[in-house]
Amino acid sequence: MYIDLLTRIKNAQNAxxxxxxxxxxxxxxxxxxxxxxxxxxxxxxxxxRSVKKIVEVLLNPERPIQGVKFLSRPSLxxxxxxxxxxxxxxxxxxxxxSTSKGILSGNNAKREKVGGQMLAEIW
Length: 123
Prior knowledge:
By secondary structure, this protein is an alpha+beta fold. Helices cover about 25% and strands about 35% of the residues.
């Protein structure tokens, strides 16, 4: 789940690691794509076959994840329309949203005019 992924990335960066390996899921791959686009992660590479797939994540030491705020969890889902999406930390962070068009950043969801479940804020 994305909570485990973001926590692992943040902990690896705090420990000074250059890369880490995480189990592959489609949702995690979508979140990693957003992190890569915004510069929090340098590169991701899928390795292995079928059940044993893993993702090797190359971390970006120039832009580490300073903090993560989880907005939804299994016991409390937080939904919002695209008009209610706010900037994270004055535009320095990103909002990750699960929409009907897939997992998108807050800016892309606003551009596409779709709301959805707010997953996390990352700065």
